[in-house]
Amino acid sequence: MQQKEVDFLVIGSGIAGISYALKVASYGKVLMLTKADEDESNTKYAQGGIAAVMYEPDSFYKHIEDTLICGDGECDENIVKIVVEESKERINELISWGTHFDKTESGVYDLAKEGGHSEHRVLHHKDNTGFEIERALLAQVHAHPNIEIQSHYFAMELITQHHKGVWVNSQTPGVECYGVYALNLKTQKVEVVLAKTTLMASGGCGNIYESTTNPVIATGDGVAMVYRAKGKIKDMEFIQFHPTALYQPGKHPSFLVSEAVRGFGAVLRNQSGDAFMEKYDHRKDLAPRDIVARAIDNEMKTRGDDFVYLDCTALNNDEFINHFPNIYNKCLSLNINLFESYIPVVPAAHYMCGGIQVDEYGRSSIQNLYAVGECSRTGLHGANRLASNSLLEALVFAHRAAVHASGRINSIVFMQGIPSWNDEGTASPEEMILITQSLKELQAIMSNYVGIVRSNLRLKRAFDRLLILHMEIEDLHERTTVNKALYELRNMIKVGYIIIKHAMQRKESKGLHYNLDHFNHQVRRKTE
Ligand code: FAD
Ligand code: SIN
Description:
Elements (H helix, E strand, L loop, with lengths): L2 E9 L3 H10 L5 E5 L15 E2 L8 H11 L6 H9 L1 H10 L25 E2 L5 H14 L4 E5 L1 E7 L19 E6 L4 E12 L20 H8 L4 E2 L4 E8 L12 H5 L3 E3 L19 H15 L4 E4 L5 H7 L1 H9 L9 E10 L2 E3 L11 E3 L4 E2 L12 H19 L24 H17 L6 H24 L4 H22 L14 H7 L2
Parallel strand pairs: 1-2, 1-8, 2-5, 8-15, 14-16
Antiparallel strand pairs: 3-4, 6-7, 7-8, 9-14, 10-13, 11-12, 12-13
Helix pairs in contact: 1-5, 1-11, 2-3, 6-14, 9-10, 12-13, 12-14, 13-14
The structure holds flavin-adenine dinucleotide and succinic acid.
């Protein structure tokens, strides 16, 4: 059996994992495991940019207020303050690592605006900010002698006392993480990676829905692993749907049309050509995302339409092409000249606001396990994330977790006596159809019953249907030699189950969780 020992283990190579790795690498050996190509991540596809308070008239106060309003009363104010106040320092670091953000002719950063922001404060690199960040960070990783990055390694399970034969349940105090079991996707062998500290930076879970902006890697693995290891998970009912994914039925993932396009002046219209957002919110097209996505959903459902339009026809052509070249070219490739015709758009699952519960240093409830980025729940986003706050959150918490973990690393010892992976009595998968069909069922259940608008009955139905999928996948898992598709499906079913459970527990409509049987809160918000 292959067994590795490292000081700092990092699961995931998006902005959270890489920026943490770059910081802890001065204090010990770092191993990053990532399940696909090293740059494949939600980070790579980020378009709009990264929010930060750079210049007056913006202020910490305004960014904090915008974040709190968007989070609909569910944010942790202390965390919001920390993230906003540390934003500029982290951005400067990102720039020092080689990231380029667009500037105006006068040499200051060109700040964009998105929904829920009262000021222009979004730093961007054209409309492919995430690609630029990922490029710059990976270049730093490659140059660092203390960081080893292993792609096509799939982290399956956290190693805890459970694997040493100690019974662990959710009430067990002091569950400890000793590393992970990981499937080497090139050899299909399970390896043990022992680590003094482990960082979960495995991103989101968009693929549990039929339509998502997330690439296929976003299957909620980190949340499922921590849940199975009896760690705390919070706020999973708050799944954010981006209002404007390009309408291309059957296309997976969906291409995003950045919210910054609306910040630039684009207007949503229904299929009769009417600008409808003023009916729903005084901030119109730049209202927080939950409100805009719900308004679109309502227009589509009441009119029986499959999509709405985004109208860019009145915008300055040269400036638009300069800021949004990829969106412009993508539309052109589909024969949509967006200066002459409207873009068909629909909401799509985009971001997981909840996740692994962590404190202000990214510490999870499991000892020596940190979680940063989209897989974590810090309290910043509350019931609805403010646009472009997630890249920022990842940077701020990667820094805080790195400071904490590196300060303790010399006091932690490797755990001995960890058994190798036991797959006795299992056989190779006979029929992939069992996996592909269950995935389709899961996506249909989540999309139809646990989407933008929910009800008690829909949630109950989803729960009952998911139980069947859960039993089937656990049975298959018992009998089948591990493989990535099976494990991802198992993780997605687990995450779907947690979302439904948290949604059923919340007896109100709040932010992204809109339940027709608890709508009084929503009425209050509209009249604000
Ligand atoms: P990711 O970047 O998703 O990285 C996760 C990593 O973990 C990947 O490398 C993945 O392969 C790896 N991984 C997952 N599971 C395993 C496993 N089991 N074993 C090994 N490796 C694993 N946010 C903003 O703030 N501004 C934006 O403009 C913006 N635009 C967006 C546009 C799109 C299309 C999308 C999808 C998201 C956007 N977001 C934006 C959200 C933001 O990009 C993500 O929340 C953020 O990049 C998450 O970073 P992360 O490092 O936590 O996770
Ligand atoms: C976008 O560009 O619209 C995405 C921004 C985000 O998700 O924060």
